[in-house]
Amino acid sequence: MTSSNPVTESFSLEKQSLDLRFRSATLASREHLTDSYVRVRLTGDELEGFGSAGHDDHIRIFLPEQPPASVEEMREAPSREFTPLEWGTDPEGVHYLDLEFALHGDEGVASAWAQHAPIGSVIGIGGPRGSRIISGSPDGWLLAGDETAVAQIRRYAALIPEGAPAVILVEVRNAGHQMAIDAPVPVEYINRGSAFPGTALADAIANLDADDKPGEDPFVFVAAEKSIVKPARALAARWGVDTDRAIIKGYWKSKDTEYHAAD
């Protein structure tokens, strides 16, 4: 929905198609940032040239039980979608890719792999196959999500200029699950306790009014359990934000481990 009196657009979201490429890498290290959140580093020669221009880009990781003999065999392994956090080449010339996982016990294949896969385990990586890139300079920012959106929030927060108005909301289980996020404004953590995931974030979003709008033409990113989409779109309508220039997604769906958001 677009406001009847739209302000001058300060930015756009531009789509970029990419050639789909598959790579193999190995698990080099893991770091528990909280009891329920882990960062892993993948390394391998095939990561040379890897890139992710869009801050909400998705790659598909493939988790074979043993090294696959071909790309076709790799693609038959269990897989999930993630957003790349950081990549590059370390001082020793090793190509790496960092990913972060919100853990859900051993219920999900990716969560179990992130916690228990032996160092040196093989992982397949496909994509990204497309990007949405911010062109221009939003005059304000809203970044909101649950644990599954922290990597994206980290990447978008790095774009926020010092002094720019911004609101960053992150829902977690409780204070023990809060993790450090570098940002030029304070991150507001919302503890859901025993409530259904996303409901505490939805309540916080519902309580944002016109006076809370950061800037006249803000970039809005909201992602959490699928039920977050409706309240996030309602906020966009209240603020007069064109949802074609916002990213509002359900990153996961309760009781549906195969769900993934459409681009």
End-to-end separation: 18 Å
CATH class of the largest domain: Alpha Beta
Radius of gyration: 19 Å
Task: Compute the number of helices.
Answer: 5
Residue share in helix: 10-25%
How many domain units? 2
What number is the mean pLDDT? 93
- Class from helix and strand fractions: alpha/beta
In the predicted model, the low-confidence regions spanning at least 5 consecutive residues are none
Question: What general form does the structure show?
Answer: globular
Order of SSEs:
EEEEHEEEHEEEHEEHEHE
Physical arrangement of strands within the biggest beta sheet: 5-4-8-2-3-7-6
Strand content: 25-35%
In the CATH hierarchy, the third-tier topology of the largest domain is known as Rossmann fold
Largest beta-sheet details: 7 strands, antiparallel
- Using the 3D structure, state the CATH architecture of the largest domain: 3-Layer(aba) Sandwich
CATH superfamily of the largest domain: Nucleotide-binding domain of ferredoxin-NADP reductase (FNR) module
Number of strands: 14
